[in-house]
Amino acid sequence: MNIFVWIAIAIFVAGAAFNIYWQSQITIKAKYKFMPVVVSAFFVAWIFTGFEYSLSYIILVALFLTVGIMDGVGGIGEKRIVSSGFLSSVYEYSKLTNITLIPINLGNKNRVVAIFNLNTRQSTQMIFNKELNVIKNELEKHINDSTKIEIGSIQ
């Protein structure tokens, strides 16, 4: 059982290093997603109810919670789109086929919902606490000519 814990620790260390590298490249951060923290906290509470408490086990649980907290961060990066979520990923700008930007005004707060569509019939969305022009100008620096940026609206 101890070898499986150390293998899982190695996987979580690699995941944390992956997150640190790509999150350090973010130029415009998206709104933080809290769901990965909720899911991680739920699993940590559930796991702590039934296992022994060895040092390797405590390290594993701490890394799991740390990676869960890190997975809530996403945004527009220098080299790729960094999605947020429990199974977050990074997407190359060349794989994007369409981007839809939807400005939302909530009183005195301006937000932009961005939907990124990929070649693989996959999409991801993020919410930004920035002006529409800031998001659009940053994306235009990175995307190629075949990727369309559409401005949507909420009806």
Structure in words:
It is a single chain. By secondary structure, the chain is α+β, with helices and mostly antiparallel strands. It has 4 helices and 8 strands, in the order αβααββββββαβ. The strands form 2 sheets. Strands 1-2-3-4 form a 4-stranded antiparallel β-sheet, covered by helices on one side. It has a 4-stranded mixed β-sheet with strand order 7-6-5-8, with helices on one face. The chain is elongated, with a radius of gyration of 18 Å. The mean pLDDT is 86.
Query: Roughly what is the average pLDDT, rounded to an integer?
Result: 86
Classify the beta-strand content into a percent band: 25-35%
Separation, N- and C-terminal Cα atoms = 55 Å
List how many beta strands DSSP finds.
8
Q: State the assembly state of the protein chains.
A: single chain
Strand order in the largest sheet: 1-2-3-4
Query: What share of the residues lie within helices?
Result: 40-55%
* Overall form: elongated
Rg, rounded, reads 18 Å
Can you summarize the main beta sheet?
4 strands, antiparallel
Number of helical segments with 4 or more residues: 4
Q: What is the succession of H and E elements?
A: HEHHEEEEEEHE
List keywords for this structure.
40% helix, 155 residues, 28% strand, alpha+beta, 4-stranded mixed β-sheet, 4 helices, elongated, 4-stranded antiparallel β-sheet, 8 strands
